Amino acid sequence: MLSSLIGKQMKMLLRNKQPLIILLVMPVVLITILSTALASVMNNEEEMAIQARLVLVDESSWEQEEASIRSFLAKQGLNGPALDGVINEFKRNDPIYILENSILVSEDVSNYIVLEKKQTVVLKEMRKDKEIDGILTIPSNFRSNYIKSAYFEDNQTPELELLLSQENEIRASIIQSIIDSWQTGYTKSLALSKAGIAPSVVIQSNQAVEKIEQVLEEGERKIPASMYYTVGMLVMFALYTPAFLSGFALQEVQWKVYDRLILAGIPATLYACSIFLTGTAVAVIQQAILLLFGRFVLGIDWIGLDAMLVIVLSYSLFVGGLSAFLTTIQLRTKSEGASTVFTGFVVSVFSFLGGSFFNIGDVSSLLANIGNFTPNGATMTAILSIQKGRELEVIWSHLPVLYAWLGLCVLLAIILFPKRGVTS
Amino acid sequence: MKGIWLARLQNLKRKPLVLISMTVMTVIFAYVLSGGVGSSLTLLVATDDSDMSNRVLEILEKEDGYTITVLTEAELQKVMKDKRDKTGLLLREKTFSVLADTESDIVRMLSLEIETIYNELAFQDQVIALGGESKWDEVEKGLVEAQSFQVNKSSMDESQVFRYDGALQSLFGFMLYFVFYTISINVQFILEDKRSGVWNRLKLASISRFQLYFGHLSFSYVIGLIQMLLVILVFRFLIGTNMYEGFWKVVIICSFYVLLVLAFSLFVISLVKTVSQSSVIISLLAVAFAMIGGAYWPLEIVQSEGLLAMKWISPVFYGMEALKRVTIYGETLGGVITYISMMILLATLLIVIGITLLEKRTERYHSSE
């Protein structure tokens, strides 16, 4: 009897194309989208791909300004070979020269910034160009002003104009940080020389720290984006199964199929049990398909299969319990309200907190802690812990959460399930 | 018309639970989230007790944006092993490591910041070694007071203010994402009415089709707008979000967004049979739209061209862009007219298609019954 009831539920799921699309096709599509879209963010391999385009508008050049600098220095009382020596020194330390020929061409920086040099431009036109991420304009008398303020007590600070596009904040921020560090470097050496220390002594030996990549223990591994999102979508989409099953149950009540079942002598409890078991079975099948998709299409190597089996089965049992509970509520209230609130809100909030969309611990550890108490969040954490290559015991701390939810759902379903039949 | 409004009001009065619970949940969640977004990142820090690492820790503790728990190295390794979503930091005299399971933007920003702190401290040490404490005071003063030259930053787009506000971006993202569901429920009555036969009876009654649809949709629109306003008001006045004097512009843009979401839900409803189907599909669409529309993360980080092109079908994208521009970048409503007109255009298109489909299907149902 039970098996034919389960068979009936399965047939209803299979004959409606929508459940199949949502339970299987949607997660597959989303996993693919997410793992390709965010791969570079999480996997840290394609950093090269972000390249910012900086246009340097230099309204003059060292050659053009040299004459005025020369006459300024002459007024300060320098002449002959001393003057030439000073000029050469200034030329070598010219900020623009250093920026162009040393900073922006260095390997670290040129990977991120493409430089384009222009002498005169129609700025108004260029500001509208969506391809450009930043424009640095150097006024025509910048070099001589800089020399006056840096080496002679001229209190006027020279100014530069940096225009940044807000269309792409990441690229703009790359430019901004390079220009900022360029400026800070000059400010530092200025402060040093004003204090009577030769800047070259300090700045050359200024490699203070080394970043050591996180050392992974033997057998441990990092979680790639594809694995993260396969698990995220897996736990999220399993939550849609109860909505469909309870929707069908309500339909059966409306179509008087339920009354006929009761008339045929099938106990209401058996009906509830069949929904529980169907929910569990569907969740197992669904998760198995998604894990296989990950294995064969995305090439994810799932490890710790025994622990995975435990966790997937436990989660499926929870999904079954939730199906029974949601059906109970729907039959009690005789409306689809519960299912609407559930699919519309509970699923998204839970998935959000559980980390299905992105690693919520990055945003707030409070929300992440709450997330670990949602059934999907606990499952996701457990699966990811196993996949990291840790000992299997780690899952035990997450299973109680799952079984507490399962117990709650089953208990409520038992208490609330309408035993005397439902009329629409 | 008036009759339809009265009927809907009565209905609402009798079954207010779903509507109320959805609205309350949206508002609560918006509130919780706004606390989470932009709040500080919890860092678990272990040092090797060297002078340098302790000074780095000291500076980090003063910094806003981090809540710091100090552990020993062994404790840190153990916590990192057990917990998935923690960020750990191991400071040594000459090296440091950031411990995290996934490599995210935040982790990268953090390592840059740590590196800067180390370098600054090393710079300070060198100056002190060369010239003593008094020299350092002098240099420090020079660093603050005498800039070598000044870089004035402004936005390339002349109509924009140069500003970055990541918190507001995620706030808008989640707001638009959550109200997507809340608003779409208001359209599901059509499916209920169809099932109970009320819809056909209304059609037989002596009101024009226009009045029938307009009456229903305008009522749904008003309810949706009220829900949206509630959320905005909570943000603006309860949480005190800084909208950079763009409050009214936000309200206006949101009123078009409500229309677009309404149109989308009408379209979805014209394709499905039952309420539970429509809510499942709408919740999925909301997630997908939020992802491709840039509600969860800024679109810049997406590198797949195909995925980027898909943003044009997402209502969330239009809402996000328009809202960001009028608040963070201080543009006028005229500046975002493209996005607003696209929202209106899409809404009109979807309403027309939706109603046409509904009409066709009703006829078919009618003849088969």
Report on this model:
The complex is a heterodimer of chains A (424) and B (369). By secondary structure, chain A is α/β, with parallel strands linked by helices. Chain A folds into two domains: 2-43 and 222-416, no CATH class; 50-191, 3-Layer(aba) Sandwich (D-Maltodextrin-Binding Protein, domain 2). Helices cover 66% and strands 6% of the residues of chain A. A four-stranded mixed beta sheet of chain A has the order 2-1-3-4. Chain B folds into two domains: 41-141; 163-368, no CATH class. The two termini of chain B are 28 Å apart. Chain B is elongated and about 95 Å long. Chain B has a four-stranded mixed beta sheet. The mean pLDDT of chain B is 82. In chain B, helix 3 (51-62) links the parallel strand 1 and strand 2 (66-71). With 369 residues, chain B is an alpha/beta fold. Chain B has 14 helices and five strands. Chain B has helices at 2-14, 17-36, 51-62, 73-82, 105-145, 166-184, 189-196, 198-204, 209-239, 247-271, 275-292, 305-309, 315-327, 337-368; strands at residues 41-47, 66-71, 87-91, 95-99, 150-155. Chains A and B meet through helix 2, helix 3, helix 9, strand 4 and helix 10 of A and helix 2, strand 4, helix 5, strand 5 and helix 6 of B. Strand 4 (159-164) of chain A pairs parallel with strand 5 of chain B, so a sheet runs across the interface.
